[in-house]
Every structure is written in structure tokens, then in C-alpha cells.
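Quick start: what a row looks like.
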Amino acid sequence: QVQLVESGGGLAQAGGSLRLSCAASGRTFSSYVMGWCRQAPGKEREFVARISWNGGSTYYADSVKGRFTISRDNAKNTVYLQMNNLKPEDTAVYYCAATPIPRGGWIPDSYDYWGQGTQVTVSS
């Protein structure tokens, strides 16, 4: 089992940047597929980015491709989401998520563990 705690959210202007962090507990962090999902008011939770257990494979939603970068540091039990060129439509609560299934993590429902979320607000 793993517990996840996000940080780094806040207010940014359009075109600006934010970096989210997700600290995980547990000795098996390096075996988990990690991801970020987000949920805007009145909308369903949507997939943002996924990273394999060793960081060798990443995948992004089309809406963030080229602007967001997911990475992980297994020595620090932490996964990151660097968000550049932010847009007002990126405004949402961002959730860190984990799954022990090597082929999982492509959709929100495939994750087993979730953080509490961190608010990101982008002003125009």
C-alpha cells in the first residue's frame, strides 16, 4: 500500500509555470506506475500524464502534450509534474495516483491509490 501527498499547487498567470510534487510513503514506490489526473468544477476526473516504474516511459493527454512533463525520483519516493505555458483551461484540482499494475495507469479508473489533491488556478 502507498500513501500520496501532493504539493506545489497555487495561482499562476496564463503562460506561466508551476511544478507539482507528490511524496509517496512505502518501500515499494519504485514498483508503482505513477500518474497525474485532474478534475475541474462540474467535470469528470481526467487523465493528464503517466510514468512507468523506472521513468523510462511517459505518456500524456493530448491537451497537455508539449507543455507538461512528468518525472520521478525513486530515491526520494517522489513524482513531479512540471507545467509550463499554463492555460486557463488547466484550472483544476490535480491528483497524484499510483497503481501496482505494470500495464495500468492509462485512465483514472485504473489507479488504486490517490492523493488528496492540490488546486491549480490559472488566470487569463
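That is the whole record. The chain has no helices and eleven strands. The mean pLDDT is 96.
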